[in-house]
Amino acid sequence: MKKSRFTEEQIIAILREQEAGVATAEVCRKHGVSSATFYKWKAKFGGLDVSEARRLKGLEDENGRLKRMLADAMLDNAALKDLLGKVVTPAARREAVAYLAEAFEMSERRACRVVGADRMSVRYEGTRGDDTVLRGRLNELAAERRRFGYRRLHVLLKREGHAVNRKRVQRLYREEKLAVRRRGGRKRAMGTRRPIETPMAANQRWSLDFLSDQLTDGRRFRILSVVDDCTRECLALAADTSLSGLRVARELDDIVRRRGRPTTIVSDNGTEFTSNAILAWADDMGVGWHYIAPGKPQQNGFIESFNGRLRDELLNETLFRSLPQARAVLEAWRRDYNEERPHSKLGWMTPWAYANAILEIPGRSVAQPASSALRPLETAIDDGSDHDRTLASDG
């Protein structure tokens, strides 16, 4: 959650409600904040009026800015004094930048600014090796497969044992002028997109999507959420600053080891879900991967609804100081969501209890009652085992 959700005036107004006699729990519930956040506000703004809070905020910001400017200037001055001799040649500047980055823990951008070097010159590497053999084979394959682009040609080269990455093949492909001419486009019928049927068994269909949030220091991180569309269980909440297709495949492997393989997975057309790693994973596992139409998140309504609950119930109310803390909080919330939180679409059963009920009736799904009345949760069997059980899959 961002720091600027509440202004100083709003925070002081909230504190005054509590000072007027309203219970702290009631104030926190009314404004959607945790008690820990409330007491942090009270320690910082207690006894201040709006004008004093504004003045305090302005002084803190100005003081912090001046301190950073002074520290940066002193560090740059010390770094320049530590460099011996003139730094004029590109090689000398490259060495000076590397020294400053190691000795003073400077970023490359800042070290280049102190030395007066161009970042492109610092990053320059020697001439490339001989690509004659690779160029020849690339031309041969392009002649055999005239409509193949560099990506498919790269796959063919790797099959033959060439240790080459995609970017190198792309560079040679362009230098050899092998680009495939695009044919005239024609309108293609989209076809009818019938609604996805509601799954009637566990592991019949999973839904995947990403969320984004922010730490208190301003760094952003992403969250991969995985939901079983039948039982509504949250199978994973993986948080990291970067989640690639390979990372998504590893998370899916962990889930499959715990509870079995799904029949179908639904996601949007994000680059992580359309990557070669995901395509290879789905092919190896024999899992059907369904992509929704671009700009149609309602076609993946199960995960969109879950993400809304996650953001409303956790992300908007929590200050994440670090990534490990965010992972721990997300895992605790996931377990609570699966084991404790009643779900309206499951007849107010928890996802964990609903999944247990499905296991007790092989080959059938539990009818979801139309009534919204609360039902007892005695069907949830608490035997001390992990709530992520291995479920029988169709495949």
Automatic annotation (TrEMBL):
GO biological process entries: DNA integration; DNA transposition
PROSITE patterns listed in its UniProt record: INTEGRASE
Domain Integrase catalytic: 195-359
GO molecular function: DNA binding; transposase activity
Domain of life: Bacteria
Pfam families: HTH_21, HTH_Tnp_1, rve_3
Record PANTHER family: BLR2054 PROTEIN, LOW CALCIUM RESPONSE LOCUS PROTEIN T
Designated name of the protein: IS3 family transposase
Species the sequence originates in: Chenggangzhangella methanolivorans
